[in-house]
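lol ok so funny story. i was supposed to be doing the assay writeup but got distracted and ended up predicting the structure for this chain instead. priorities right. anyway since i did it might as well share w the group, maybe its usefull for someone
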Amino acid sequence: MKILSVIALCCVFVFQVTESQRSNSDHHNAQNAEQSEVHRRQYYDVQLRQIPIKQIGPIHFHGVIGVLPPKYFPLSEEDKFASNKILNNFKYMQPFLPDTLTIPQVSVTSPGSYSQLTLTDIQVAGIKETGLKSLEVRLQNHRIDFAAIFHSISAGAEFEFIENVGTPVIVKGRVRLPVQYLQPVGAVGLRKERRNMFREVYQLFSGDVVLEVPNIQVYIDYQNATNHDLDGDFIKSKILIGKIEDLLADAILNAAIKQVNKRFESVPASLVQRYLSK
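and the output, tada:
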């Protein structure tokens, strides 16, 4: 989901401007109206209609949290047994996955502070409908490598883009991304953590996930804008787009790890070990 790529295409906005009717009854009122119009063009709100923007991409997400345990070779027979058991019974483990991920805010600023993009109330739904294409469990150092498939993901966020080059530009709205068949590839690291003298649990502490999407259909509800001229540096903010991609990927991965760990709290590590043993 390359949310910033969508925002970077805001130059295709089709908008309607509602201007106050100006009285032409006398010359004095006309002069005042002209001055008012100059001020309005420097800073005014524009109501923009909702439009679909199709086939945005390619999109590259790379989320990294912590440091993964080493990826050793070859897999032991115990590793292969555990990998196959999880792969074949993954549908029974899906309750450990979160229904929806929520990220409160992600914000980036361009070099020189000329542009700023803020995403708030980021919601990612559909994660529980995940399938596994491949899985490698390394029991010696608790590393899991995987290739997954998300059958249907829906993401959305509020956004505000501010451009401070020349006349200020402010663009606000909400972006929505319905996506099917995403295929992330990555790895996670686990470790045992003691909760009391009688119980240990497994917790995710690191992750490295890559997601490539060739294209995506995106919808934006544009709420308002400041300054109707949305060309120039606004569309050229490539550095800003790259930065938000990285931050979003890290934020989503971090939120997923926290949600999974909450569910792992209820499962003793000894029970997991027995389940995965030959």
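The longest strand covers residues 143-163. The longest helix spans residues 238-264.
back to the writeup now i swear
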